[in-house]
Amino acid sequence: MAILGKVKNSFGSMFSFFANSWAELKKVRWPKRKELISYTIVVLVTVAIVTVYFTIVDFGLNNLIDALF
Fold first, then answer.
1. Which of 11, 16, 33, 69 has the fewest other C-beta atoms within 10 Å?
2. For the segment 20-32, what is each residue's pLDDT rounded down to a tens digit?
């Protein structure tokens, strides 16, 4: 009987967790379409800049190591 009580408590706490998570998601302020597009553009531009930076650094270090050896 004790095992059934533990199982019931486990599933009860699991359902409670999902109910509380759903309640928290209802409180979230989701971005509008225009905001989402601008955030996406910022992320893509940032990724492109970082990619170019690391490509240049990698190329420079590769040439430096080749010059040393």
1. 69
2. 999 999 999 999 9
